[in-house]
Design a protein that fits this description.
By secondary structure, the chain is α/β, with parallel strands linked by helices. It has 14 helices and 8 strands. It has helices spanning about 10-45, 50-65, 65-70, 95-120, 120-150, 165-175, 190-205, 215-220, 235-245, 255-265, 290-300, 315-320, 330, 335-365, and strands spanning about 155-160, 180, 210-215, 225-230, 250-255, 270, 305, 325. Condenses 4-methyl-5-(beta-hydroxyethyl)thiazole monophosphate (THZ-P) and 2-methyl-4-amino-5-hydroxymethyl pyrimidine pyrophosphate (HMP-PP) to form thiamine monophosphate (TMP).
Length: about 375
């Protein structure tokens, strides 16, 4: 494509090599960032649809990356190659890798949009549209990443206030907990914000999901993976408007009617309980394992049995049909939270392995 700059010939001639260098550098930057994102869509999420979106965007960028732009490249004379920042040398988790590269692509596309208007008017429109496509891709990918992580999750920790909160949570993460929900009804907002930031960082460092109890504003402030709502909290639909599609919303239920409503509300997962009496839900009658059996038969969403579950009664809950459980005191008040977590994870994994094996055998028998 021929570059056309609507200005005098002398100014045009002086500006053209600079424009070409800017456009070449940012086309490279956008294509590299998209390739990093594409690899996760392909190998991490196994998503053909998201991979195809990335591939299409890269190919579209390649069309604009002409020989004229490439020939203007001057890597030895580029002062930017000597610049670096300490944050570029480390990545704490997968989510940061994805977010950093989405920012890189979006910034590059904005540069291409503005300088492209000087090089060729159609570039401004093309890259503006592409930038909005990347915003949509980011929302869909992060939502997909969180939902995939949720489906693989089996042990969910709900915190309770303690002076050793970060240490207990990290021990549980080291033991293999999949989801952590920060729950604190009494501390002031400054304390909650500080705790939520710290726990969110820990969870993402260990590849776990981080949820906030009740508080949509707090979840947004610390970039949590979502919120968990009780029956007296914001309706799921309102929380969804505030959080968007990329974050998760959980909903507590205590009976079949609430379960049915939660399934229709747009929640991503459901809490089922309290299975046993627990001081965490003082005054609420235990549902017993009967409600666990009901959820196992009726729920079309991932669900976690919760309420007084510990190593002593876990097997009864699993026998009733639970595949996922949430605990509070069993870990938060344990003398060795990592060891208790490891035990719970091993029991859940063992049951899941048996159920997967039985499911495969049933398929084999049905085809004989």
């Amino acid at each position: 494509m021929e570059g056309v700059v609507p200005m005098g010939n002398q100014e045009h001639g002086a500006l053209q090599p600079v424009l070409c260098r800017i456009l070449d550098a940012n086309l490279d930057r956008a294509r590299e960032g998209l390739r990093i994102i594409e690899e996760w869509c392909r190998f991490g999420l196994n998503s053909g649809a998201l991979t195809e979106v990335c591939k299409h965007l890269r190919q579209e960028l390649a069309i604009w990356h002409t020989a004229e732009l490439r020939s203007a490249r001057d890597t030895p004379g580029d002062p930017g190659t000597e610049l670096t920042h300490p944050q570029e040398a480390q990545r704490t988790d997968l989510q940061q890798v994805l977010q950093v590269n989405f920012c890189r692509v979006q910034e590059a596309l904005r540069v291409l949009e503005e300088y492209g208007k000087l090089y060729q008017p159609e570039m401004g429109t093309a890259f503006k549209q592409m930038r909005y496509q990347v915003y949509t891709l980011e929302s869909n990918l992060l939502a997909g990443h969180r939902h995939q992580r949720l489906l693989r999750s089996h042990l969910y920790l709900v915190t309770s206030p303690t002076e050793s909160l970060p240490a207990v949570v990290e021990a549980a993460l080291q033991g293999g907990v999949d989801v952590v929900q920060y729950r604190d009804k009494n501390s002031d907002d400054g304390v909650r914000l500080q705790n939520a930031k710290q726990l969110c960082h820990l969870c993402h460092q260990y590849g776990a999901l981080f949820m906030v109890n009740d508080r949509v504003d707090l979840a947004l402030a610390v970039d949590a993976d979502g919120v968990h709502l009780g029956q007296q909290d914001l309706p799921v639909a309102v929380a969804r408007q505030l959080l968007g599609q990329q974050r998760l919303i959980g909903c507590s239920t205590t009976n079949p009617d609430e379960l049915k409503a939660a399934l229709q509300s747009g929640a991503d997962y459901i809490g089922v309980g309290p299975v046993y009496e627990t001081p965490t839900k003082a005054g609420k009658a235990a549902t017993g394992v009967e409600y666990v059996r009901y959820a196992a038969q009726q729920s079309t969403l991932p669900w976690f049995a919760i309420g007084g579950i510990d190593p002593n009664n876990l097997q009864e809950v699993l026998t009733a049909g639970a595949e996922r459980v949430a605990v509070v005191r069993a870990i938060m008040q344990a003398e060795q939270p990592m060891l208790v977590t490891q035990y719970l994870v091993s029991q859940l994994s063992h049951v899941q392995m048996i159920r997967d094996y039985n499911a495969r055998m049933s398929m084999v028998i049905s085809h004989v």
